[in-house]
Amino acid sequence: NPKVIEPKWQKIWNDTKIYEATEDTARPKRYVLEYFPYPSGAAMHVGHVRNYTIGDAVARYSRMTGNNVLHPMGWDAFGLPAENYAIKSGISPQEAVAINVENFKAQLMQMGFSYDWSREINSTDPSYYKWTQWFFLLFFQKNLAYQRESLQWWCPHDKTVLANEQVEDGHCWRCGSLVEKKSLEQWFFKITDYADRLEKDLDNINWSESIKTMQRNWIGRSAGAELQFTILSSKFTIPVFTTRPDTLYGATFLVLSPEHKIFASGELSISKEVKDYIKQAGLKSEIDRMETEREKTGVFTGAYAVNPANGEKIPVWVADYVLPGYGTGAIMAVPAHDKRDWEFAKKFQLPIIHVYDQEGADTNSWYHGEGIVKNSGKYDGIATAQMREKIVFDLAKKKSAKEKINYKLRDWLISRQRYWGAPIPIIHCPKDGAVPVPEKDLPVVLPEVKSYEPSGDGRSPLANVPEFVNVKCPKCGGPAKRETDTMDGFACSSWYFLRFADPHNDKKPFDRELVKRWLPVDDYIGGAEHAVMHLLYARFWTKVMFDEKLINFDEPFKTLRNQGMILAPDGRKMSKSWNNTIEPDELIKQGYGADSIRLMELFIGPWNQSAAWSVEGLGGTYRFLQRTWTIVQEFLDETKDQRSKIKDQKTVGHNSELEIQIARAVHKATKKVSQDMASLGFNTAIAALMECVNELYKIKSLPTGQAGQHNFGLARSVWQENLEKFVQLLAPFAPHITEELWGQLGNKDSVHLSQWPTWDKELIKEQLITLAVQINGKVRSEILVDADIDEETATTMAKNDDKVAKILVGKKIKKTVYVPGRLISLVV
Ligand code: ANZ
C-alpha cells in the first residue's frame, strides 16, 4: 500500500539523512544535477516530474555503484511571475516565494527524490544574492560589466527591458506582447569578449549536437575581412565588414545603416530627406528590417567613397536593411552577388558588375557561391577562394584591409527595471561616477516597498524608496544615489551549481577546494529550452571564474542530458490553458503511489523522446509493483520459520536445475539493467525487470512434489539471495517499495546505500534457446543460439545452417525479419 509505506520511508530518509553527500574522498565523486526550478504557484505536473525522476534514477544508480553522489536542489525564485502575482494579490513576493517553495518542496518530497536537502539554496535569499552581487562587482572590476545608453527591447506590458534572447519573433518571451524599442541607460555583461571560446569549447563537451548547433548559430561566428573606404573630400574612412572581399571589384555603392555614427558626427552635410529617412527607420523593429522579402528603401547621402581596390568613386547610400548592431554598420554593396543589394540596385538604378563566372549561372540576375574571378583587373582568372586571400593580403599592405572575425552574439543586457531581483551593487556619484558598493556592505538588501508596480518611465519601483536611493558615495563621502535596477534572474542561475559545493559559506561565494572536489557537474539534466540563455550564460560565468583562478575548470557541465517532453494523453503539450495537465498529487491520492508514477515516467519511452502520458500505462507499472510485492510476501510467508537461518546461509554455487533457473533469471536482468543504465536506457531496463518477475513467477510454480506449495523451500537461500538482488535492481526507479522489501528480507541498512549487484557471466552464457528459421514463410530449420544473441549474429548463424544453406544456393535474400527469442524469417 503506497499510501502507507511511501510517507513512512520519506520521513525515515529525511531523519537519517542518507542522501547527503559525504566528506569521504575514498569513493569517486559524482555530481548529478537537474535545473533548479522556478517555484511557481502552479502545481508541478507529470511532465516536470520526468526531469527529476531521470536525475534521481541516475543519482541512485551512481550511489549504489560506489560513488559519493552530490544531488542537490534549490530555488531559482527571482523574476517576474512572483512580482506580477504580488501586484495582483497584494502578497509580497517574499511571502509568495516562501509559500511556493514550501508547496514545491512537498511535491518533490512526496515523489521520494534523493536530494541532499542540507544544501538547499534559494536565489532570493540575501545570503545567496550577496554573492551574485559580489560577482557583479568582479565583472565590473574586470571591465566585463558596463553601463551604456542604448536602444533596447522594451516590453510595454511587463514594463521592462528584455535581452535579445528574451525576444521571440518580436514578442516578449514571457507575456507574448509585441515588443518596442526604447533608449535607456542599461547594464551589460561583456559576453562578446568570450565569443570565440564559447564557440570553440563546444567541441570539448558531451552535449547533444542540436543544443551545440543552437549555441553555434546564436554566437554566429563569421570569418571575413574589414575593408576601409575613404569618403571623398573628407578625413572620414568607413570600415565595412564583408565575408566576400573577393567581390570587391563588384562593389558599386556603399550602404550605411541609418544609425551610423557619421551622421551624428557632422562630417557630412546631410539633406532633410536623409534626416527624415534616418528618423523613421529608427522606429522599425529589427525583425522587420531583417525581413528579406520587404521592399527596399533608402536615400542617397550625397557623398562618395573610394573603392580601395581600383580607386573608383562609388556613391554612399543610407538604407535600413543595414543593421547598426552587426559588423561595422556599413556594407559594400555587390548587387551582382547578393540578393538584397541586387534588389536595391534594381530599384535605384545603380550599376551592377558580375565579378566571377559560375557554371550555369545567369548574368542577368544575381548569383552567389564560388567561381572564377573576372572584371577584377590583375586578379582575373583565379578562383574566388584564392581571391579572398590575395586581395586582403595585398590591401593589408596599404592598411586598407585586415582579416576579421565577427560574431552575431551581442553583449548580455542584465539590468531590469523591476523590483524582484538582486539589486545591482553600484552607487552613482556626481563626482566619482559609478562606484562599486564596498564588499563589506554587501549584500545590498532589497528594501520592503509598498508598491511593486514599475514606474513605466523606465525606472524600477526601488526608485520610489528615498531611504534606499539616497546614500553617501563610498569614495568621497558626498551625496550620491544608489542604482535602482535589479539583475536579470539569469545572473543568479549562472553560478548556483557552484554554490551547491559549499552552500553555507558566508566568507566567500565558495571554497575553491570544495568546488574542485565536486565540479564540473557530471550529469546535467533538463529541457532544451535553455539552449541559448542559461546554458550559454553559465558557460560564460564559468570561463570568467576560471580566468580569475577561482575555479580550475572552464566548462561547467560535462554531460548535458535533455529529456523528452511528456505530452498530455491528447498528444498536446500539457498546459493550464488546455486544461490537460496531470498532477502527481492527484494520482497519489488515487492510490497509485510515487513508485508507479516514477516507473511510468521512465518506462513510457526512450528518456530523450517525447511521449504522451497514459493512464493505462500507469496501471501497468502499478500491477508490476504489486506482483513484485506479492512474490516476496509469498516467499517470506512460506519460509517464515527459517528466516534467521536463511539470511545467514551463504549459497555456494548452484546445486540444482531449479537453483540455476532462479539465479539465471536475475543475473540476466542484472546484466541488462547495468548495461542499460550506462546509456540511460531506463525503459528497456524496466522492461527487463518486468520480464524477470514473470520468469520468477513461472519458476516458483514449477512442480515440487507437494501439492499447493511453491518451491521456495527447495532453494531457500538462492531465492533469498536473488530476490534481494532483484529488489536492488529496482531500487533506483522505485525507491519506496524496494526499501520496504529490502527490510522485510532481513536487511538492516538502506537498500539505497547497498552495493549494486554483479552478474555471473558463466551462468547466463550457458543459456541457449532455439530459434526457428523460416524461408518464405515456411519453417525450414532450427538453430541453437545464445539467449541474448543480437540480430546480426542470429541472421549469420541462420544462413550458415546446413539445411538453410542448401535452400539458399543461388538465391538472393531480399529481406530478413528477426523476432528475438523466436524466429528468423528470410524472404528470397
Ligand atoms: C559584400 C558581399 C558580397 C556580402 C556578397 C555578401 C555577399 P554573415 O555571413 O551573416 O556574417 N553585412 C555586413 N554587415 C551588415 C550589417 N550591419 N547589416 C546588414 N548586412 C551586413 O554576413 C556577412 C555579410 O552580410 C557581409 O558580406 C555583408 O555583405 C553583410 F556577394 O559584403 B557582404
Number of helices: 28
**Proportion of β residues?**
15-25%
Bound molecules: ligand ANZ
Largest sheet: 7 strands, mixed
**Class computed from helices, strands and strand pairing:** alpha+beta
Contiguous runs where pLDDT drops below 50 for at least 5 residues:
none
Helical coverage, percent range: 25-40%
Number of strands: 33
Instruction: Summarize model confidence as the mean pLDDT.
Output: 91
Spatial separation of the terminal alpha carbons: 55 Å
What shape does the CA trace take? globular
What's the assembly state of these chains? single chain
| Radius of gyration, taken over Cα atoms and rounded to an integer in Å | 34 Å
Quick recap:
This protein has 28 helices and 33 strands.
Attribute tags:
28 helices; 828 residues; binds ligand ANZ; 4-stranded parallel β-sheet; alpha+beta
Helix and strand arrangement:
Layout: H1 2-16, E1 29-34, H2 46-64, E2 68-70, E3 74-75, H3 80-89, H4 93-109, E4 121-122, H5 126-141, E5 145-155, E6 160-162, E7 167-168, E8 171-172, E9 180-189, H6 195-200, H7 209-219, E10 222-231, E11 237-242, E12 253-256, H8 262-265, H9 272-281, H10 286-290, E13 299-306, E14 313-318, E15 330-333, H11 339-348, E16 356-357, E17 372-373, H12 384-397, E18 401-406, E19 412-413, E20 415-416, E21 426-429, E22 433-436, H13 466-469, E23 470-472, E24 479-482, E25 486-487, H14 489-492, H15 496-499, H16 512-518, E26 521-526, H17 534-547, E27 557-562, E28 566-567, H18 584-589, H19 593-603, E29 611-612, H20 615-638, H21 643-648, H22 657-678, H23 682-700, H24 716-730, H25 735-744, H26 761-765, E30 768-775, E31 778-786, H27 791-800, H28 802-808, E32 815-819, E33 823-827
Helix pairs in contact: 1-25, 2-19, 3-4, 19-20, 20-23, 22-23, 22-24, 24-25
